[in-house]
Amino acid sequence: MSDELLCSPLEDLHLELGGRLVPFAGWNMPVMYSSILTEHQAVRSAVGVFDISHMGQFVVTGADAGSWLNGLLANDLGKLSDGTGQYTFLLNEQGGVIDDLIVYRESPERYFLVVNASKVAEDASWMTSHLQGEVEFSDESSQWAGMAIQGPEASAAFASAFPGEELPSRNGLARLADGSIVCRTGYTGEDGFELFCASESACAIFQRFMEAGATPCGLGARDSLRLEMGYPLNGSDLSPERTPLEAGLGFFVALDKGDFVGRDAMVAQKKEGLDQRLVGIEYLEKGAPPRSHYPVTDADGEVLGELASGVLSPSLGKGIGMAYLPIAFTKPGTEVWIDVRGRRFPAQVVKKPFYKPTTIPA
Amino acid sequence: MNVPDDLRFQSSHEWVRLEGDTAVVGISDHAQEELTDVVFVELPQMGRAVDAGDPTAVVESVKAASDIYAPISGEVIEVNDAVEADPSLVNTDPYGSGWIFKLKIKDASQLDALLDAEGYRALIG
């Protein structure tokens, strides 16, 4: 990867809005505008708009598109009907996670994939090296700008910004009159959608959502919001050395659908039993914000693992995090300690999500 | 940007106010604005002896933990429990109720090595 950072088509607007740009996954992206806490709260209680132009988009077409993708992705593509999507994984032969992504079926011969910015090149090269049958793969990442509109008032913001158009139902995809793609998905746990549009239209659309009441939000709030839901971030909570089963995401793996890359390794792993699993950890009391790589210990100070992610939850007012721990320590209620600069804070293993949104997404 | 004339500053953005042989230490208005929402302050142990430049406290925002360096050598004689209970005081009143710790100092001349208000204003542009 070159040192040159990629620019979002929304960059000038971010600067105008006081956004603080930081390097993220090779892009120069806003981490916040004025306050992560305020932006976080806006999404939990009203609506926020995030620039997600850094994310990658692939289009797979052809008579064999579905069966080929189903052999590369872990979830069962056969469950999708036109205009619906699912969370899934691209795995290596060992069942390790190359990327987590959402795949939408537009038609039986056309699929739209949204992948992580940091993995666009790796995903594309993995997929093209596995091409077979009547399949055309195209990386359209540079053509699409993206934004996520999230929060209990997201639908209202859409109605106001795009009068006369309709949002798809949960996990669905629809095309708008201007050619934009809108997906009823998100990374916050709230109702909301992700909109992908031509780069030239991005600023005008982002501003329309702001006029509809959406607070511009940066990657800082995006991270605290997703962590409150226990959603994994690839590179922190997912890695090529860990299978989705170890990440506690077996729900999105269809071992019974037939062969796919990584299946054999996971079948074997399931048979032998897991050594470790990713669990949610929550402080018992207030304390120093937990962060990735902080050691997780048992009562005697013995190191059990380290935090993959951590944050002081703005909604709960206490530290939360996720860590791969030995199976013996993965039961909810298990006491563990987080070591922050040599000071240990008592915590316990909890079920995810850490926070339950008050509005139920459609 | 608020930079009071009666304070001395360190280039790492701590301020110090001399009250007799006691040095009161906090972080500047500029620093709190750069950090944004302060969500946690780790105070030093009472009685700890620190040298100028030692990491002495930690101020944390949602995104990052920042060391606070002692601007002058001395012994920690008081810590601000109020900022432990309400870290946002560091944002709302960085030169007043948002102070962090107090040092009993031995050598006030160490202050000469620090920036005055004018020098600090020039630093933060």
TrEMBL record, chain A:
It is an enzyme of class 2 (transferase). Residues 11-257 form the GCVT N-terminal domain. It catalyses: N(6)-[(R)-S(8)-aminomethyldihydrolipoyl]-L-lysyl-[protein] + (6S)-5,6,7,8-tetrahydrofolate = N(6)-[(R)-dihydrolipoyl]-L-lysyl-[protein] + (6R)-5,10-methylene-5,6,7,8-tetrahydrofolate + NH4(+). GO terms for cellular component: cytosol; glycine cleavage complex. One of its GO terms (biological process) is glycine decarboxylation via glycine cleavage system. It comes from the Bacteria. Its EC number is 2.1.2.10. The keyword Methyltransferase applies. Substrate binds at residue 194. Residues 277-356 form the Aminomethyltransferase C-terminal domain. The glycine cleavage system is composed of four proteins: P, T, L and H. The glycine cleavage system catalyzes the degradation of glycine. HAMAP family: GcvT. This is Aminomethyltransferase. It comes from Haloferula luteola.
UniProtKB/TrEMBL annotation, chain B:
Keywords: Lipoyl. InterPro entries: Biotin_lipoyl, GCV_H, GCV_H/Fam206, GCV_H_sub, Single_hybrid_motif. One of its GO terms (cellular component) is cytosol. GO terms for biological process: glycine decarboxylation via glycine cleavage system; protein lipoylation. The modification N6-lipoyllysine is found at residue 63. The keyword Nuclease does not apply. Gene3D superfamilies: 2.40.50.100. Binds 1 lipoyl cofactor covalently. Its cofactor is (R)-lipoate. It comes from the Bacteria. The glycine cleavage system catalyzes the degradation of glycine. The H protein shuttles the methylamine group of glycine from the P protein to the T protein. The glycine cleavage system is composed of four proteins: P, T, L and H. HAMAP family: GcvH. This is Glycine cleavage system H protein. It comes from Haloferula luteola. The lineage of its organism: Bacteria, Pseudomonadati, Verrucomicrobiota, Verrucomicrobiia, Verrucomicrobiales. The gene is gcvH.
